[in-house]
Every structure is written in structure tokens, then in C-alpha cells.
Design goal:
single chain, 200 residues, alpha+beta, Aminopeptidase, 7-stranded mixed β-sheet, 5 helices, globular, GNAT family N-acetyltransferase, acyltransferase activity, acyltransferase, GNAT_dom, Acyl_CoA_acyltransferase
Length: 200
């Protein structure tokens, strides 16, 4: 199953990812920065590698459940590959990737999602936009339920999921929580949903 790291919709609300790793908060996004959310392309490989390398160790762990080190070409390509079961979106600011979201169809009505946002963009609502767009596309393709893995220590994300999907089922196993929810019952409007984080 995929893993989850969520960026909050508003910076003044609960943050899913702590501010930085060693005391100093990450730099904030530049004022007036324009973000484009679009389908991933294989020519994004270098931009995607740079994005992964720039994630803080904490964000890497929340997304991938491990630190990445120097991400290999195989991992980068797998995060960009789109096929009949996999949808991938990137958020770009100019030529820089600042967010990544992917879904994987596990059947006619079930989809797993995974999203990660650059540290400086966490808390800006970008994660919610990515998840909303991803789930809107999944629902258009027939998905009715969404699944995700969340680190058990990530209590803020789990609390947000409970708020969005009160009827979601959560199953703890080996330090992670498997979440399953019905998309039609989500109170998060299309285009404004949450985010998740990793692929095994």
C-alpha cells in the first residue's frame, strides 16, 4: 500500500509535517509564486530527482518511510510512470517540481494515493490541491474508495483524516496505519483534498 504525508489547507491550522528538522523553520514560498499542477512526463526526470534530493530527511521518511539518500534512476522513473493503473501529477513553480501526487488503481472502484510536498510549501494548501485533483480524476475513472498508509507516529495526519472521513476504517500494523475511506463521503471538496506519501 502507499504511504501518506499531508500538507494542511491553511498555514495557521494543524501542520502534518513539523517545521524543519533541526529547529529552524523551512523557508516560505515566494510571495505571488504561481503553481501549475499537471500530469507528470518522463522528461521531468531531472526535476523530479532534484525535488526528491531537496526534501528534508523528516519529509522523506513521512513519504517513503525511509531516507532516500541519492535516489536512483529506477525510483525516479517509477514515480513518473503513467499507465492504465497509475496516474501521476506534479506541481511545478517555473521549472522546479514542488509537489508530487500519484494514484494506483487496485480494482474497478479502489484507488490508493500518495502525495508529498516540498518542505517550504507545506502548510500552503498545495497538498490539498494535489490530492483534490488526483481524487477528482480517480472518481471520474470510477473509483469509489481510497486507501493510504500513514506512519502511526503521524498523529496530526490521522486526526485530519478522521475529520475528513469520520467513517474511514483504520488498521494498525507494524508501526503504520492502513486507512480506507469512501470517496463520495469525503467532506473535502474536489480540488482541496489531502495528501499522502510513499510507495514500497
Amino acid at each position: 500500500m502507499m504511504r501518506t504525508q499531508v500538507a494542511c489547507e491553511r498555514p495557521d491550522r494543524v501542520r502534518a509535517v513539523p517545521e524543519g528538522d533541526g529547529g529552524e523553520p523551512p523557508a516560505r514560498p515566494p510571495a505571488g509564486a504561481r503553481i501549475e499542477i499537471r500530469p507528470a512526463r518522463m522528461e521531468d526526470e531531472d526535476r523530479m530527482r532534484g525535488f526528491l534530493c531537496d526534501l528534508s530527511p523528516r519529509t522523506q521518511v513521512l513519504r517513503f518511510f525511509t531516507a532516500l539518500g541519492n535516489p536512483g534512476a529506477g525510483l525516479v522513473r517509477s514515480l513518473l510512470r503513467v499507465d492504465e493503473r497509475r496516474d501521476v501529477l506534479v506541481a511545478v513553480c517555473g521549472e522546479t517540481v514542488v509537489g508530487h501526487a500519484m494514484s494506483f488503481s487496485r480494482g474497478a472502484a479502489e484507488v490508493e494515493i500518495s502525495v508529498v510536498v516540498a518542505d517550504r510549501w507545506q502548510g500552503s494548501g498545495l497538498g490539498s490541491r494535489l490530492v483534490g485533483r488526483l481524487l477528482h480524476r480517480a472518481e471520474a475513472g470510477g473509483a469509489r474508495t481510497v486507501g493510504m498508509d500513514v506512519l502511526g507516529e503521524n498523529r496530526r495526519v490521522l486526526a485530519m483524516i478522521r475529520g475528513w472521513w469520520p467513517d474511514a476504517t483504520m488498521k494498525a500494523s507494524s508501526g503504520t496505519v492502513e486507512v480506507a475511506a469512501r470517496l463520495r463521503r469525503s467532506p473535502v471538496p474536489a480540488g482541496r483534498r489531502a495528501v499522502r506519501a510513499s510507495v514500497r
